Amino acid sequence: MAESSPTSTKARKTMRRSISDTHPLMSSSSGPLTEELQCSICLDVFTDPVSTPCGHNFCKTCLNKCWDNSQTCNCPYCKETFKHRPDLKINTTLREVVDHYKKKSPEKKPGVLIKSEVVCYYCVERKLKALKSCLVCQSSYCETHLEPHLRVAGLKKHKLINPVRNLEDYICQKHERPLELFCRDDQTCVCLMCGVTDHKNHKTVSVEEESEEKKTELIKKQKDVQQMIQDRIKKIQDFKRSAEVRKRNSEKEKAARVELFTDLIRSIERCQTELLEMMKEQQKALEKQEEELIEELEQEITELKMRNTELEQLSHTEDHLHLLQIYSSRGSSRNTRNWSEISVKTDESLETLRRALTQLQDTLQEKLTHTVSTDLKRMQQYAVDVTLDPDTAHPKLILSFNGKQVRCGDIEQKLPDKPERFDTCILVLGKEGFSSGRFYFEVQVKGKTGWTLGVARESVNRKGLIALRPSDGYWIVRLRNGNEYDACTDPLISLCLRVKPQRVGVFVDYEEGLVSFYDVESSSHIYSFTAQSFTGKLYPFFSPYPNNGGKNSTPLIITPVKYNK
Known about the structure:
By secondary structure, this protein is α+β, with helices and mostly antiparallel strands. Helix content is 37%, strand content 16%. It is built from nine helices and 23 strands. It has helices at residues 6-22, 60-68, 92-104, 143-151, 153-156, 192-196, 207-315, 320-331, 350-380; strands at 49-51, 57-59, 73-74, 81-82, 132-134, 139-141, 160-161, 181-183, 188-190, 204-206, 397-399, 405-408, 428-429, 438-444, 451-457, 474-480, 484-487, 493-495, 503-509, 514-519, 524-529, 538-543, 556-559. The strands form six sheets. The chain has a seven-stranded antiparallel beta sheet, with helices on one face. It has a six-stranded antiparallel beta sheet with strand order 13-22-15-16-17-18, with no helix packed on it. Helix 7 runs antiparallel to helix 9 (350-380). The longest helix is centred in the middle third of the chain and has 109 residues, at 207-315. The protein starts with 5 loop residues before the first helix and ends in a 6-residue tail after the last strand.
């Protein structure tokens, strides 16, 4: 067989297309690949399809690899978890459908080997499987018909590739030559004729060289994708572990709260029992007192009646001497109790109730202090290192070298008027902002008659007079005039504190929309902003207030958090 000429090449293309149109194995009338026949793991047509107990289908190898790399067996599609690894059986009906589909719908992508057989174009009666495809002849050959290409000198120069059906995709449609070069400028495959004409000054390399580079890139991308898959599998496992930990902690928290309220109920019941017992004893004592008083009154009445009789008789005597003698000995009044000053209580003693309620209050306060102390310890694990930001500080504020203390001076310093600096209100923010999660910090306020603490949104107005309220991006509490504590809501809420805080803890849960303030030393709750909606970063917020003639010169000090597990 001599080397093909362009004319013979066109003739073979026509003959090949005619065969392609008439032979059933070459038909491509079937539609595109449907999702029903795709494995959702490899995104390819099923190979040995198997079904999970939840009814979803996967390649047997894909599903086994997925389960081999996981600690649990669950459906990759719907995430249903199976207690025991299912015994996978090939879905024979689905496999038959897939095999039929593969025969009717071979893939048409260039460069990808067709899964169905490519047949020899020159076999007449029984079409044999092609062994190679020739890009010059644009035909595929079985072993017998390929023999001239391995023997004839001219044909040995032809470019042979593994058999493919879409040979036209490997041929330059303009010059009818094999696509042997890749133009990196235009990112397209070209033939040798294109390389010396249309792409003469372009950077071209052989298809093999470009393919090897692309393979290297694909391998790297595949590794990246595989790493992304592993990262996401690990993230799922982290979420599951977090869910388990949260569930255990929630159960512990529930048990602790049930125990707390059970103790409180017992304390109330015990207080009630003691109060009723005390009232019962008091009632008995009062009844006994009443009986004794009545008995004493009855005895006096008897004596008085006897005396009344004697006096009656004496008043009718005619013996004057006898009257005088008896009167001097019996006529004088006997000492009797002044009953007008004696009474019995008709109301229960309020002191008894007061003592009982005071005892109950002490018990409740003890329980509350213990609970707040436990919560505070849990919040302290989210402690962050806060440093004051000098670029935001009002010119009167004096910051320490390490950025942990701030006090108010009497004279404004000459500082650059930066956009982030507060120019009217004596305020300063922390350097670090937080846009997620939880954080906690503590500030010493000992010796001060005024201060403001909390958090502020990054976008707050910093120039001119400022309204310190949540709607304007501030969540704060403050001390004024030495003993007036407020939560800066709209309107203000006055706070009644049992003791004056020496160190204040500030806790924020960004996702929960929570800002809480605590008296660290007494382990007592000061105030909480709840159900807030945060946007952007939140920054720790401080104001030491003016000096007030030296009465408020003590600095605010950001202190290290002492967290004990």
